[in-house]
Amino acid sequence: MAVLPLYGVIAPGGNKLRGEHLNLANLADQIEAAFDTKRLSAVVLAINSPGGSPVQSSLIFDRIRQLADEKGVPVYAFAEDVMASGGYWLGLCADEIYINKNSVVGSIGVVSAGFGFPALLEKVGVDRRLYSAGENKIKLDPFSPEKEDDILWLKKIQGDIHNNFKELVKTRRGERLKKRKDKELFSGDVWIGEKAAELGLVDGIADLRSFCREKFGEKVRFNLVEGRQGFLAKKLGLAQQQAIGADAVDALITAVRNQSLWGRFGL
Fold first, then answer.
1. If we measure between CA atoms, which residue out of 77, 55, 64, 16 comes closest to residue 239?
2. Contact call for residues 21 and 237 (beta carbons, < 8 A)
3. What is the pLDDT of residues 17-28, one digit of tens each?
């Protein structure tokens, strides 16, 4: 029994050894190792993620499903604190999903966040000079006034990604979803424990060890593919990082961004 922990924010980049982000580049070796486990009966995903990049979520999903299908191995997912947004996308890798009665699940939607600074530039007396070739090259420039056309363009992209997410949920969960609840399911809302199970987003309430021992026998052995770092360090994306100078600034920005993702779920 291979156990693959998927803890943290889903984002490109980061240090592979420190495991600052969940992305395919950082996880590829661990995913391969999980499916190469000797006498493998199943791969278990231990998930604690508030989401992040839809592209990286999709890439990780594809790699896990490719190997599961190639090797004919079942995949089970178990949520800890949060399995939301891209974290739920990862949960969809599994044939069955189980959660704690207090786990936060869902957030099937797409969000983009940023800041606008045109008033600040005017206040401090800075003259912004921006030149481009191509009328769409400077969409959503944070130092220029917001444009309605740019907002519509962004919402179109968000809508396309949201549709991809919804189709994946429908394909992977199938008849287990309560179809009459489509509007509710895909609103970006989240649910706790039993309610998520009632909606068909998950298969029930269970913990990893008890479930696997009941399904595969009392003598089942667990092979942890990746060691778990401290939750707070992983949560902030600063695991084992000793940063100075510009690296310290990058680390702080990463920490603030990651904390904002966790903060959406009260963590």
1. 16
2. yes
3. 444 689 999 999
